[in-house]
From TrEMBL:
Residues 5-247 form the ABC transporter domain. The gene is pstB. Keywords: ATP-binding, Nucleotide-binding, Transport. This is Phosphate ABC transporter ATP-binding protein. It comes from Bellilinea caldifistulae. One of its GO terms (biological process) is phosphate ion transmembrane transport. GO terms for molecular function: ATP binding; ATP hydrolysis activity; phosphate transmembrane transporter activity. PANTHER family: ABC TRANSPORTER I FAMILY MEMBER 17 (PTHR43423:SF1). GO terms for cellular component: membrane. Coiled coil: none annotated. It holds the Pfam family ABC_tran.
Length: 252
């Protein structure tokens, strides 16, 4: 078990003065599904956004601590944020495809990076769509607008867009919250394949999803990391009463 991202004493306060993350220490394990779960407002999204510096865009009053990735503290000001976001890609809770064709949506990042060879782009688009478990459904309509496919397919398209850039880590913030059970199952199934090659951090849609997919799980409550450990152990025999209450549905 190898750590991919190491969070050390991370604290974050937005401009409203409320501490959204309080001295968080957690490891993101490589080639595993790392689940951050807990009730709304616990700080899960804030932590995810810190991993690829999306919090730079928010009104943050105080940020301290370290986030180590590939031998570097990515909170240092000299971090190349564009490069960081290519290595640590993110999928949001609502699919936001670009107003372009399916092919263009997946090829977009590579085109921006200057890749012009059509055969290379075609290969990358197919590979990413296969990994996102969408290829079979769309391979004959790659020139259709992205708006013409279902919400569940759009979400897998957004995943494929991230995968085309061959990131090292994929952050998924409630990626199935707007999806039907069949599309949800497809995304969960692709996570199992994706973790062979990538490191996954998932904020799940609910506790049941957390328990289904978590190799490692961290329970967040009001900005604090209450409990962290191997998924199966944490859901079956949590050590802390607050975790137990939450996973057994007594609150939240
Ligand atoms: N951009 C922001 N500006 C100000 N406060 C924010 C911002 N983003 C989050 N917060 C606050 O930080 C706290 C933690 O929110 P965060 O979204 O990280 O939690 P969460 O566990 O992901 O919850 P949810 O499941 O509702 O997304 C909340 O009190 C929230 O209101």
């Amino acid at each position: 078990m190898q750590s991919k991202i190491s969070v050390q004493n991370l604290s974050l306060t937005y401009s409203d003065g409320v501490e959204s993350l309080h001295e968080i220490n957690v490891e993101v394990i490589a080639n595993a599904v790392n689940v951050f779960f807990g009730p709304a407002g616990g700080g899960k999204s804030s932590l995810l956004r810190a991993f690829n510096r999306l919090n730079d865009l928010a009104d943050v009053r105080h940020l301290s601590g370290e986030i180590w990735f590939n031998g570097k503290n990515i909170l240092e000001p000299d971090t190349d944020v564009i490069e960081l976001r290519r290595k640590i890609g993110m999928v949001f809770s609502r699919p936001v495809p670009l107003p372009l064709t399916l092919w263009e949506n997946v090829a977009y990042g590579l085109l921006l990076m200057g890749e012009k060879r059509k055969n290379r782009l075609d290969e990358a688009v197919e590979k990413a769509l296969r990994l996102a478990a969408l290829w079979d459904e769309v391979k004959d309509r790659l020139n259709d607008p992205a708006s013409a496919i279902s919400g569940g397919q759009q979400q897998r398209l957004c995943l494929a867009r991230v995968l085309a850039l061959e990131p090292e880590v994929i952050l998924l913030d409630e990626p199935t919250s707007a999806l039907d059970p069949v599309s949800t199952a497809k995304i969960e199934y692709s996570l199992l394949e994706l973790k062979e090659q990538y490191t996954i951090v998932l904020v799940p849609h609910n506790v049941q999803q957390a328990a289904r997919v978590a190799d490692y799980a961290a329970f967040f409550l009001q900005g604090r990391l209450v409990e962290y450990g191997i998924g199966k152990q944490l859901f079956v025999s949590p050590k802390v009463k607050e975790t137990e209450d939450y996973v057994t549905g007594r609150f939240g």
